[in-house]
Amino acid sequence: MQDKQEIARDWLPRYTGMQLQDFGQYILLTNFSEYVENFANRYNADICGEKKPMQAASNNEGLTIINFGMGSPNAATIMDLLVACNPKGVLFLGKCGGLKETTEIGHFILPIASIRGDGTSKDYFPEEVPALPSFKLHKFVSEKIIEQGLEYRTGVIYTTNRRVWEHDKSFLDHLKKTTCIGIDMETATIFIVGHYNEIARGALLLVSDIPVTPDGVKTEESDKEVTNEWMKLHLDIGIKSMTDIGKSGENIKHFRY
Predict the structure, then answer these.
(1) Is the CATH code 3.40.50.1820 the one for domain 4-248?
(2) Each residue of 111-126: pLDDT tens digit?
(3) Helix count and strand count (H, E) for the chain
(4) Is the pTM of this model over 0.85?
(5) Residue range 124-165, pLDDT digits in tens
(6) What is d(CA 93, CA 90) in angstroms, rounded to the nearest whole number?
(7) DSSP 123
(8) Does the CA dihedral 253-192-64-151 come out positive or negative?
(9) DSSP tag of 211
(10) C-alpha span between 107 and 152 (Å, rounded)
(11) In sequence order, which ranges of the chain are alpha helices (DSSP H)?
(12) Neighbours of 187 (CB within 10 A)
C-alpha cells in the first residue's frame, strides 16, 4: 500500500475495530474510556475496539466518539486515519491544566490557538505555521455553551510532549512567559494535522487541575472527582454541538489555501 487513503482505509478499522461504513460524518475525540462508555450507554451502542489501541462508538444520528489514547503522536495518528471516512467536523473533548489564577477547575476553554511545543506537528508544517481551530466550528460550540447558561474561557493553549514536568521550575517559568491559559498534550497536534488533512476541527477543554501550584498538581483522586462532576456536562455540550451542526447543514470547512 503506497497511497495514504488506501493505508488509512485499512488502518482505521484495524486501530478502532469499527468498519468504515459505521463511522458518522461528525467525530468526537477524547482521551478517556469513561466518555466512550457514557456515550455508548446513552444510545445503547456497541463499543468497538475494546482490545484495540482505540475504542469507538457511533449513534444513529451520524456521530462517532473515539478514545484515541494520550499524547501528540496518537493525536496525529487518529487525525491522519480519519481521512478514510472524510468527516465533516471533528471536536476534541480533552482535559487541560489551568495556567491562570482566574482559570478554575471545572471551567471550559475554547482555545483560539495552541503553541506547538509538541514536536509531532513539525512533521506536517514548518514551525511558523500557527495551530488554529476552525473558526465556524468553535463559533457553533460557543453558542451551545451559552444556550446552557454556562461561561467559558478563550485563550492560547500550550501543547507539550512532556507528561512529567510539574517539578521543573525552569519549564514553569517558560510557561508563564508564554501567557498561555492552559497546557495539554494534544490540541496543537489536532489543529495542525487537521489543517494538513483539510479536516474542520476544534477543541473544548475542561480544566482538570492547576499544575502551576504544588497543591494543584493532578492526582488519581482529584482526576476522578473532576470526571465524576463535569464529564457528563462536557460530553453533553460536545454531543449537542456536533449533532446540531449536522442538522443545520452549515459548512464549517475552511477554504483550501
Answers:
(1) no
(2) 999 999 999 999 999 9
(3) 7, 8
(4) yes
(5) 999 999 999 999 899 999 999 999 899 899 999 999 988 777
(6) 10
(7) G
(8) negative
(9) T
(10) 6
(11) 4-16, 33-43, 72-81, 135-147, 169-178, 187-196, 220-248
(12) 32
